[in-house]
């Protein structure tokens, strides 16, 4: 979720931002980083290493994310694959 949001915001720099966030989780506290990411997502705020770091270092108590977002799954490519395989098997 965080990486997808970073890709949308930082076309070429998403990887670097994400690696910095992972490093922060390793150095500070993974749970705090997870809660900061969840907090930013719930408030629909921009995702960045700086925003996550600011929340983690602020010492602010952040509740664990309470909402779960599951994106819709597009099964059309899977359906096409099955149709193709059925055609190959029946030939």
Describe the structure.
The protein has five helices and no strands. The chain has helices at 2-9, 14-27, 30-42, 49-58, 76-89. It is elongated and about 65 Å long.
**Uncertain runs with pLDDT below 50, 5 residues or more?**
none
The structure class reads mainly alpha
Helix content: 55-70%
Q: What is the string of helix and strand elements?
A: HHHHH
Number of DSSP strand runs: 0
Overall pLDDT level: 84
Gap from first CA to last CA: 42 Å
For the biggest sheet, the summary is: none
Q: SSE layout and pairings?
A:
Blueprint: H1 2-9, H2 14-27, H3 30-42, H4 49-58, H5 76-89
Helix pairs in contact: 1-2, 2-3, 3-4
Quick summary of this structure?
The protein has 91 residues and is mainly α.
Give short descriptive properties of this protein.
91 residues; mainly alpha; elongated
């Amino acid at each position: 979720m965080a990486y997808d949001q970073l890709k949308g915001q930082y076309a070429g720099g998403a990887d670097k931002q994400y690696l910095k966030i992972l490093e922060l989780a390793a150095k500070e506290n993974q749970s705090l980083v997870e809660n900061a990411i969840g907090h930013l997502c719930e408030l629909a705020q921009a995702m960045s290493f700086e925003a996550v770091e600011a929340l983690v270092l602020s010492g602010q108590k952040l509740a664990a994310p309470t909402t779960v977002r599951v994106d819709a799954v597009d099964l059309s490519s899977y359906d096409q694959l099955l149709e193709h395989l059925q055609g190959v098997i029946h030939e």
